[in-house]
């Protein structure tokens, strides 16, 4: 795991875990269109998963731990690879021109940091309610609907930017993970790129639908 | 043609180095890039200056000795072309051209545009071979090889070890070079017995040399004069992960 | 230039008996080295091309303590990497009637009966093992759909015995040898010295005992001693300045060994390759080879009329001269290299050449495109067309290619016996650097075969016979110091001239002189002129060369100057050898010796011998002849009409 390839594999696996989480998360969020109750039930169900076999919030906590571990490992790998890269090129070029668009170079690291900052804000907002008008002791659906009120358009905007960033991150990331894990080859490249783009697009649309709907008053 | 060159000059590893501007006149469009530099150097020698040091040998795009970053692109913007095969007709009269050495910590500058690429040899030493002492080989026809495999192996085997991939990679990674050799041998039956140990040893050596990790940005393939494809890296990763599973 | 004749060379150490059994016999007779002793025996191998790379790797595998040297930054860059066409081997995988004997016969005949029978036969025998070895190493030779190796016929051979890896056979074979070499470096049996240039040979007590090298990065002069020295430093075609060789190819290593007593054999045998991209201007730094295979479908022509400067497309059919088809109706565009080259020169001399300076002929694919279709032509030659366009900026699908002959290979080199040992005991010479197997003309795809035969199979056996008597103990300090001082003072001398001309400008002038007077066609007059002019130019060089920088750094001007200095001395010997050999044979064409049709005329009566030259500091070289006898082939006059 200490090797650069090992770290890359860690990123790919943890990235995949996070992608899985995001897909479920997105589906959950979409429940808001089925009404506040449905959404609150879902939030509740998350916490009572596998009850009574496991106590309240056990499974969710385990999932959260896995998720946090993934985030931490993912970032650890990203940071140490970035540091390695910096050490590998101590003297910069006077002129440097990208020949492959430079997309991945720019989007992954800076995009990743943006996403990380967003998640912090996001947790304070919708999980802990610290920066949410409804505060912590409210129903999740209330927090959400209050949070994306038209008066707080800038929050919606923030989410918009962040989710697009996630989309861009994954457009390269998903393909990249296949490459890293050695499942890519020339014949599959086209299909993999398409899959990555499709997945990112689905996530972006799926994630943005609820906040936009709330902001523009479709969901009240 | 008349050109302005901004060339990286560095008298040795200890020198900090700097860009120096030169004018060259009457450049023929039929000259190769290196012949253009020859003309500059002939003048510098006569003027008692130190000519610009650069590596080159075959001047036909096969030995992998030449290489410089021209206007920010390894081997220049002409695709699938080594510096020695780049011709001046691709530049405009009156243009300013910046010329820099490969930049990577494992490729320390020796002088001007000359860098030390011995790290590549050490990566090969780590396992880039099939262990077969002379005289011990079976008849060449005893092991047939699928034509498709032989062709793909060949595609990877054409790497000339120039180092442009490292120079272009934003991470200073040697993945394309290393993957090319791993892929070449891993696609052939002769390479099977040592396949996973080879991948592990070579990747570990690449790390030990101080190259960066690959984040699949694809800059390397884009500048590679031999067009080594990106899926060689996937194959390297696959062999490497397999080695670590064991 | 004067010379004297010395005693003939009578014993080449080739075993007696039937030719098929000689190599077996020699192998069996060779003394073996006790495995425990091998570690104590040091061998220096200079050069990492096919010959040197394979030799160093194999000696390492055998357990010797090897030091390997090259002037490039990696052993993988030796000029063998540039070979395109392929490698011959008598595998007879096609069942088309090939055999060891046939390969042997073709090679001797191709060499215009100026090669040694025993050596060539051994080469043909060993060729079979080379392919096995390379395939086992993972060399990706071209294959057919059935998974077996593909072969093609090459250079006019009537059997299909050339194995190839697209147009990069040399590269793939060299990478195989290089990888084997790096494996030994990792194992600790070979120590690799890159960016080190050999500048002298250490001879002590009559044996080659080491070399003096310059570390090209720091400028340090180093001494390396050993029990035997192997030179595998390639060819010296760069004496002509413009050639298909890499820029760094030089004669320095073998020339300095020659100065120390190794005979130089047949220096005048030079191969000119007919299909190269012509010179485009004064600045030209090297010439690029276009594969010979182009002549399979391209038609060679020039305008019928002198000074016709119309665009090729505007010249009607009846005003074109397809001269190869006209003169050689049987072989047409496929005549051997030396013939095609000379014919091109002749039409250009008549003033009918095309392109800059009138030094070029057309190689036209118009008819092939009409007949086969553009796609088919592209499939066959696409990459070559691309290469041509990259260099010339002209698209060969629309306008005919222009080609011209260029210096390509040097058949001459240091004289070696059957064991590949030179006249200095302990100094072995392999690959293009020796003279041994190609006679006066090398067949296509035979140099790779020879380099690898020498390195993987022949030398490792024969050197053992020599080393069995070793280790040879301490090397006397006096001999080492003398060589070192010689090297140092030469460098100092080069740096101290501080004149007004660059080494390259001298090299260019020498090259032009050699091309004009000792090139494709040589006459007594031209050679005498050259012999007069070379010493003058050499004198000017030593009085007026400008070498910038110092000796204690990476100094490419200094490197160049040292090589050019040696080329002067070599050039002189080449001209002398060409002057003395008043016959035409293979790559050596004396205008005075031709038949009624202008074809090369051998003089077997007087010249069926190897000319081995002994160095003399007074510049009166001593000629030793080694008679060539043919018991297994009959000497015939080559004819391609
Ligand atoms: C363009 C081209 C195409 C060819 N195509 C074919 C072909 O298709 N088939 C074929 O059979 N042959 C071909 N040949 C010929 C063949 O490639 C060469 O003859 C052969 O590869 C020579 O191998 P070598 O090992 O003797 O020398 P080289 O490969 O030239 O190696 C010389 C080595 O010596 C080292 N060296 C030289 N001088 C010094 C010094 N002073 N100090 C230290 N090191 C030194 C160099 O660093 C290098 O490692 C071709 C040649 C050319 C130029
Ligand atoms: C929840 C959010 C995230 C998800 C779903 C995610 C997912 C992924 C995936 C799947 C990859 C591809 C791995 C590979 O190439 O093998 C990846 C790569 C990467 N991620 Fe993330 N990531 C997330 C957050 C972050 C964060 C917060 C950072 C910032 C520190 C980050 C930085 C990177 C970097 C630098 C790469 C490497 C680029 C590459 O592999 O091409 N990611 N990510
Ligand atoms: C824009 C649309 C999004 C909405 C509406 C949204 C909504 C929510 C809500 C309501 C919660 C709280 C759930 C609960 O406490 O039960 C939550 C938790 C969370 N969200 Fe989002 N989210 C969005 C996008 C994202 C994105 C893009 C990411 C990651 C990159 C993300 C990561 C998380 C995480 C890590 C949690 C904590 C989960 C947990 O504690 O179990 N969310 N989100
Ligand atoms: S992979 Fe391409 S760019 Fe990299 S060393 Fe090989 S040939 Fe050069
Ligand atoms: S450019 Fe670098 S990031 Fe990977 S894909 Fe190539 S090595
Ligand atoms: S000089 Fe050999 S590849 Fe450019």
Automatic annotation (TrEMBL), chain A:
<feature type="transmembrane region" description="Helical">
    <location>
        <begin position="12"/>
        <end position="34"/>
    </location>
</feature>
<feature type="transmembrane region" description="Helical">
    <location>
        <begin position="100"/>
        <end position="124"/>
    </location>
</feature>
<feature type="transmembrane region" description="Helical">
    <location>
        <begin position="153"/>
        <end position="170"/>
    </location>
</feature>
<dbReference type="InterPro" id="IPR011138">
    <property type="entry name" value="Cytochrome_b-558"/>
</dbReference>
<dbReference type="InterPro" id="IPR034804">
    <property type="entry name" value="SQR/QFR_C/D"/>
</dbReference>
<protein>
    <submittedName>
        <fullName>Succinate dehydrogenase cytochrome b subunit</fullName>
    </submittedName>
</protein>
<dbReference type="GO" id="GO:0016020">
    <property type="term" value="C:membrane"/>
</dbReference>
<feature type="transmembrane region" description="Helical">
    <location>
        <begin position="191"/>
        <end position="214"/>
    </location>
</feature>
<keyword id="KW-0812">Transmembrane</keyword>
<keyword id="KW-1133">Transmembrane helix</keyword>
<keyword id="KW-0472">Membrane</keyword>
<feature type="transmembrane region" description="Helical">
    <location>
        <begin position="54"/>
        <end position="79"/>
    </location>
</feature>
From TrEMBL, chain B:
<dbReference type="Pfam" id="PF13183">
    <property type="entry name" value="Fer4_8"/>
</dbReference>
<dbReference type="InterPro" id="IPR001041">
    <property type="entry name" value="2Fe-2S_ferredoxin-type"/>
</dbReference>
<dbReference type="GO" id="GO:0051537">
    <property type="term" value="F:2 iron, 2 sulfur cluster binding"/>
</dbReference>
<feature type="domain" description="4Fe-4S ferredoxin-type">
    <location>
        <begin position="150"/>
        <end position="179"/>
    </location>
</feature>
<keyword id="KW-0408">Iron</keyword>
<dbReference type="InterPro" id="IPR025192">
    <property type="entry name" value="Succ_DH/fum_Rdtase_N"/>
</dbReference>
<dbReference type="GO" id="GO:0022904">
    <property type="term" value="P:respiratory electron transport chain"/>
</dbReference>
<dbReference type="GO" id="GO:0009055">
    <property type="term" value="F:electron transfer activity"/>
</dbReference>
<dbReference type="InterPro" id="IPR009051">
    <property type="entry name" value="Helical_ferredxn"/>
</dbReference>
<protein>
    <submittedName>
        <fullName>Succinate dehydrogenase/fumarate reductase iron-sulfur subunit</fullName>
    </submittedName>
</protein>
<dbReference type="Pfam" id="PF13085">
    <property type="entry name" value="Fer2_3"/>
</dbReference>
<dbReference type="InterPro" id="IPR006058">
    <property type="entry name" value="2Fe2S_fd_BS"/>
</dbReference>
<dbReference type="GO" id="GO:0009060">
    <property type="term" value="P:aerobic respiration"/>
</dbReference>
<keyword id="KW-0479">Metal-binding</keyword>
<dbReference type="InterPro" id="IPR017896">
    <property type="entry name" value="4Fe4S_Fe-S-bd"/>
</dbReference>
From TrEMBL, chain C:
<feature type="domain" description="Fumarate reductase/succinate dehydrogenase flavoprotein-like C-terminal">
    <location>
        <begin position="507"/>
        <end position="640"/>
    </location>
</feature>
<keyword id="KW-0472">Membrane</keyword>
<keyword id="KW-0813">Transport</keyword>
<dbReference type="GO" id="GO:0009055">
    <property type="term" value="F:electron transfer activity"/>
</dbReference>
<dbReference type="InterPro" id="IPR015939">
    <property type="entry name" value="Fum_Rdtase/Succ_DH_flav-like_C"/>
</dbReference>
<comment type="similarity">
    <text>Belongs to the FAD-dependent oxidoreductase 2 family. FRD/SDH subfamily.</text>
</comment>
<dbReference type="InterPro" id="IPR011280">
    <property type="entry name" value="Succ_DH/Fum_Rdt_flav_su"/>
</dbReference>
<dbReference type="InterPro" id="IPR027477">
    <property type="entry name" value="Succ_DH/fumarate_Rdtase_cat_sf"/>
</dbReference>
<dbReference type="InterPro" id="IPR003953">
    <property type="entry name" value="FAD-dep_OxRdtase_2_FAD-bd"/>
</dbReference>
<keyword id="KW-1003">Cell membrane</keyword>
<dbReference type="GO" id="GO:0009061">
    <property type="term" value="P:anaerobic respiration"/>
</dbReference>
<dbReference type="InterPro" id="IPR036188">
    <property type="entry name" value="FAD/NAD-bd_sf"/>
</dbReference>
<keyword id="KW-0560">Oxidoreductase</keyword>
<dbReference type="GO" id="GO:0008177">
    <property type="term" value="F:succinate dehydrogenase (quinone) activity"/>
</dbReference>
<dbReference type="InterPro" id="IPR030664">
    <property type="entry name" value="SdhA/FrdA/AprA"/>
</dbReference>
């Amino acid at each position: 795991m200490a090797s650069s390839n090992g770290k890359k594999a860690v990123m790919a696996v943890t990235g995949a875990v996070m992608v899985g989480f995001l897909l479920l998360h997105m589906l959950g969020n979409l429940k808001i269109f089925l009404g506040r109750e449905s959404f609150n039930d879902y939030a509740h169900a998350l916490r009572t998963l596998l009850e009574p076999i496991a106590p309240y919030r056990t499974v969710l906590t385990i999932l959260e731990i896995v998720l946090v571990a993934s985030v931490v490992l993912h970032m650890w790998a990203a940071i140490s690879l970035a540091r390695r890269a910096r050490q590998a090129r101590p003297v910069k070029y006077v002129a440097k021109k990208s020949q492959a668009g430079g997309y991945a170079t720019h989007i992954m690291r800076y995009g990743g940091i943006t996403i990380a900052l967003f998640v912090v804000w996001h947790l304070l907002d919708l999980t802990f309610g610290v920066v949410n008008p409804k505060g912590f002791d409210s129903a999740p659906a209330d927090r959400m609907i209050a949070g994306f009120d038209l008066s707080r358009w800038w929050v919606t905007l923030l989410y918009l930017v962040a989710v697009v960033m996630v989309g861009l991150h994954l457009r390269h990331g998903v393909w990249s993970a296949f490459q890293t894990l050695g499942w890519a080859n020339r014949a599959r490249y086209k299909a993999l790129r398409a899959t990555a783009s499709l997945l990112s697009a689905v996530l972006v649309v799926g994630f943005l639908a609820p906040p936009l709907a709330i902001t523009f008053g479709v969901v009240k | 043609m008349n050109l302005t060159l901004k060339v990286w000059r560095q008298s040795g590893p200890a020198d900090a180095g700097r860009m120096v501007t030169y004018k060259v006149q009457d450049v023929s469009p039929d000259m190769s890039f290196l012949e253009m530099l020859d003309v500059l150097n002939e003048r510098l020698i006569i003027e008692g200056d130190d000519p610009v040091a650069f590596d080159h040998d075959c001047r036909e795009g096969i030995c992998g000795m030449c290489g410089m970053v021209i206007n920010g692109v390894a081997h220049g913007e002409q695709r699938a072309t080594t510096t020695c095969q780049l011709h001046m007709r691709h530049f405009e009269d009156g243009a300013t051209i910046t010329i820099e050495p490969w930049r990577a910590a494992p490729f320390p500058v020796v002088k001007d545009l000359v860098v030390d690429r011995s790290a590549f040899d050490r990566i090969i030493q780590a396992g880039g071979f099939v262990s077969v002492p002379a005289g011990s080989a079976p008849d060449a026809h005893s092991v047939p090889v699928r034509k498709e495999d032989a062709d793909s192996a060949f595609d990877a085997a054409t790497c000339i070890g120039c180092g442009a991939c490292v120079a272009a990679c934003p991470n200073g990674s040697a993945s394309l070079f290393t993957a090319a050799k791993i892929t070449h041998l891993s696609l052939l039956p002769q390479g099977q017995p040592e396949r996973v140990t080879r991948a592990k040893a070579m990747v570990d050596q690449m790390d030990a040399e101080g190259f960066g990790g690959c984040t699949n940005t694809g800059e390397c393939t884009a500048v590679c004069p031999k067009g080594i494809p990106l899926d060689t890296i996937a194959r390297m990763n696959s062999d490497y992960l397999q080695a670590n599973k064991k | 230039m004067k010379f004297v004749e010395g005693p003939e060379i009578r014993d080449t150490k080739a075993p007696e008996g039937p030719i098929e059994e000689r190599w077996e016999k020699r192998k069996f007779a060779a003394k073996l080295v006790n495995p425990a002793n091998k570690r104590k025996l040091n061998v220096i191998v200079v050069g990492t091309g096919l010959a040197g790379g394979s030799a160093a790797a194999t000696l390492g595998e055998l357990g010797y303590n090897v030091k390997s040297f090259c002037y490039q930054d990696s052993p993988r860059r030796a000029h063998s990497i540039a070979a395109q066409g392929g490698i011959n081997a008598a595998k007879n995988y096609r069942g088309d009637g090939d055999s060891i004997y046939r390969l042997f016969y073709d090679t001797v005949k191709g060499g215009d009966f100026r090669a040694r029978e025993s050596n060539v036969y051994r080469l043909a025998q060993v060729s079979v093992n080379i392919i096995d070895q390379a395939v086992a190493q993972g060399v990706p030779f071209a294959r057919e759909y059935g998974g077996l190796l593909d072969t093609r016929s090459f250079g006019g051979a009537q059997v299909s015995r050339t194995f190839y890896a697209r147009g990069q056979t040399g590269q793939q074979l060299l990478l195989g040898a290089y990888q084997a070499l790096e494996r030994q470096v990792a194992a600790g049996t070979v120590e690799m010295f890159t960016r080190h240039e050999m500048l002298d040979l250490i001879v002590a007590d009559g044996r080659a005992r080491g070399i003096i090298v310059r570390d090209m990065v720091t400028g340090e002069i180093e001494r390396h001693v050993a029990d035997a020295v192997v030179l595998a430093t390639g060819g010296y075609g760069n004496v002509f300045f413009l050639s298909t060789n890499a820029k760094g190819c030089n004669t320095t290593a073998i020339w300095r060994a020659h100065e120390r007593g190794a005979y130089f054999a047949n220096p005048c045998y030079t191969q000119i390759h007919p299909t190269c991209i012509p010179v485009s201007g004064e600045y030209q730094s090297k010439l690029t080879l276009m594969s010979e295979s182009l002549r399979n479908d391209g038609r060679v022509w020039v305008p019928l009329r002198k000074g016709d400067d119309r665009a090729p497309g505007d010249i009607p059919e009846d005003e074109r001269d397809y001269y190869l088809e006209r003169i050689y109706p049987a072989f047409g565009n496929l005549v051997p290299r030396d013939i095609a080259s000379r014919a091109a020169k002749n039409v250009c001399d008549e003033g009918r050449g095309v392109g800059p300076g009138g030094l070029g002929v057309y190689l036209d694919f118009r008819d092939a495109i009409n007949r086969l279709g553009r796609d088919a032509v592209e499939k066959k030659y696409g990459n070559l067309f691309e290469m041509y366009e990259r260099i010339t900026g002209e698209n060969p699908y629309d306008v005919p290619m222009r080609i011209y002959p260029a210096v390509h290979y040097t058949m001459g080199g240091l004289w070696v016996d059957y064991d590949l040992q030179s006249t200095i005991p302990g100094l072995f010479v392999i690959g293009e650097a020796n003279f041994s197997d190609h006679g006066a003309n090398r067949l296509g795809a035979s140099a790779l075969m020879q380099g690898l035969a020498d390195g993987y199979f022949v030398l490792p056996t024969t050197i053992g016979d020599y080393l069995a008597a070793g280790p040879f103990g301490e090397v006397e300090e006096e001999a080492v110091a003398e060589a070192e001082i010689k090297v140092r003072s030469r460098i100092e001398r080069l740096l101290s001239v501080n004149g007004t001309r660059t080494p390259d400008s001298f090299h260019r002038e020498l090259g032009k002189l050699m091309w004009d007077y000792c090139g494709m066609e040589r006459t007594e007059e031209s050679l005498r002129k050259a012999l007069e002019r070379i010493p003058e130019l050499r004198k000017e060089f030593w009085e007026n060369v400008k070498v910038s920088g110092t000796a204690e750094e990476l100094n490419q001007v200094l490197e160049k100057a040292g090589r050019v200095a040696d080329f002067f001395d070599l050039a002189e010997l080449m001209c002398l050898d060409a002057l003395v050999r008043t016959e035409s044979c293979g790559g050596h064409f004396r205008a005075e010796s031709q038949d009624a049709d202008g074809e090369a005329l051998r003089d077997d009566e007087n010249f069926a011998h190897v000319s081995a030259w002994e160095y003399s500091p007074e510049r009166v070289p001593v000629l030793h002849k080694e008679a060539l006898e043919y018991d297994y082939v009959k000497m015939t006059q080559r004819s391609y009409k």
